[in-house]
DUF4932 domain-containing protein (Pontibacter chinhatensis), 393 residues
Amino acid sequence: MKTYLTAFSVVVLLLLGSCKAPVPTISKSYENALKEEPQVEVPEVYEAMQIALSLTDTYQSDPNLINKSTPYYQEMVSHFGMHKTHPLVLKLDRKLKKAGAYGQVNTLTSLQSLNYKLEDGKLLKKSRYRIPFIYNVAPYPLFLLHSNRRLFNSFVQETGFEEFYSQHGSHYASLIARSHELCDYAGMKQWLEREFPKVQNQALLVVFSPLTGGSHSQRDYLSKDGQKKQMVMFVSAPNFEEGVWKDLSEQEKSAYATRIIFTEIDHSYVNPTTDIYLEQIEAAMQELGSWKTEKVIGGYNSFPLTFNEYMTWGVYTLYAYDTYPADVFERVIERQVEIMASKRGFIRFREFNEELLRLYKHRKKGERVADLYPQIIEWMKSTMQAAQNSVPQ
């Protein structure tokens, strides 16, 4: 029996790590409820999970995972801080330390939370997404809500979470309203559909917590028959009325808030286009160390993943160029370059961004951003050749 389980474990891990691993799909009932207009939510179970995660040592030690600069964070600590040793918090921390905070643990935990609602301190299933059976039995360090209902319910009841969530309902509503004010969701979607015309149309769900730091994620989900598609993103809340943001103009706040959303949305358009040019991209980039430093976090350990991050932020530059006044555009893009090249470690982003913008400004009539891929890839190839030629022999 022990040998069988070991072999099974290996098979499951190989499946989860492969490109053919089964993925969650949209349930039939939720498929019929999808809306054309973008949805923005601070779901109750999701927020409870974010609070529990925020109490872990892993989150507390990583400013990219948690935003500690808001009054909401201080209120959360005041209310929940004494529960940092609750078994749910400790178990989540063990999972994060075993699997890493930027992988399947966080992604699936966030998605699962959308499958439930709370009623009288207990989880009730509402099944937005079908979670593949393989995830439910896998000897893998995932946190599965269906297997931890009692633990989660205990946390909710002992901490008085429902009362806290209710008391902050107006705050969540104001953040959602502010997100709609700052971000032209329909405009972003329309622009991307125009520039990437071959990508399937899709519904959009934006989920955020006031606690989330700079760690964002996005993923597309299909109905079982593949006819319906929804993009789900987990991002930070639009906290632009505090700190360094409060004195910015409304247009600059809009540009920064939009960049957070846009660089997640456009993965659904950039990534499938990138897949057409995988061999050319790898040949052009040659080595990852020429495009990113070791401080880059988040799993950008392949040519496509690194290229996609360059391209998604570069495509935002093009959208911003079309959308904001010149002075706002210049300030916002300079900050974007600083974040990407200096803070995040994508060291050639400034040159890449300038070249992509140049190509966009001088594109032929009828060309779309998707048509610029061969040209930007050729530029990357030339850049690497020039770098090699400049090395003393």
About this structure: Confidence is low (pLDDT under 50) at residues 1-19.
